[in-house]
Amino acid sequence: MLSHPTAATFLQLMWLASPALPIGGFSYSEGLEAAIDSGRVTTEAEAAEWLHHQLHLTQSRGDMAAIAQALPAWAAQDRARLAQLNDWVRHTRESAELRLQTEQMGRSLIEWLKNRHAGDAAIQAQVQWLAAQDASYPLAFALAAHLTGAHAPDALLAYAFGWAENMVQAAIKAVPLGQSAGQRILARLTQEIPAAVELALALPDTERQAFSPMLAILSARHEHQYSRLFRS
């Protein structure tokens, strides 16, 4: 599955996956904090299992599948297809928090892309068009990855690792866990990510989905949670 990206592409993918990228990913737990508050996640093992299921049930079959389908659409400049995928992502957010997250991270990544490619009129046109669509984060990430020249498997590996690292840091802060426990969870997720990427690449429109009822319920509860560290 690995396509051996060039050094320049590889470094740009590392940049996109970095928690230091100023798009706010560190401020979200995507329902994990609510799962902790409700007593569903209280240990390292439970946190690892929660994130394992989230990777395979929501990320690979939802946002990662949308990114996989958006990458060739960006290459072909198929704006109708891109708008369709963006609408799908936005309409499958099952709580106000999850909707606001994808919108905020999408806007922030667009602003980063504007700055990153300030002197390129063709890229600026693509970025401006996406901004006008109220871009979701997966569609903005797909554009950013497309601009690196990365192949889809490599782009999805970078996306998934960036997601995993942010979520593990959320678990460390909110459970709470030690750094060694976090590294063990991250090691398990990195073993699972290649299979999640393969599934995302293989899914057609008819099998892409965002059905996670308990996550939606917990996210809605988190909106009114008395004490919290994260925005979702």
Automatic annotation (TrEMBL):
Keywords: Chaperone, Cytoplasm, Nickel insertion. GO terms for molecular function: nickel cation binding. One of its GO terms (cellular component) is cytoplasm. It holds the Pfam family UreF. InterPro entries: UreF, UreF_sf. It is found in: Cytoplasm. Transmembrane segments: none annotated. PANTHER family: UREASE ACCESSORY PROTEIN F. Belongs to the UreF family. Required for maturation of urease via the functional incorporation of the urease nickel metallocenter. UreD, UreF and UreG form a complex that acts as a GTP-hydrolysis-dependent molecular chaperone, activating the urease apoprotein by helping to assemble the nickel containing metallocenter of UreC. The UreE protein probably delivers the nickel. This is Urease accessory protein UreF. It comes from Comamonas aquatica DA1877.
